Amino acid sequence: MSAGARRHTLSLIGELDQRTARVLDAEIERLCEEDVAGITLDLRELTYIDSTGIAVIAIHCQLCRKRGRDFALIPGSRSVNRAFGRAGVSHLLPVQEDEILIRRSRPRCSVEGEPVKSLGGWLLSPSPATAQGSAEVQRGSS
Question: What are the backbone angles phi and psi of residue 29, rounded to the nearest 5°?
Answer without folding.
Answer: -60, -40
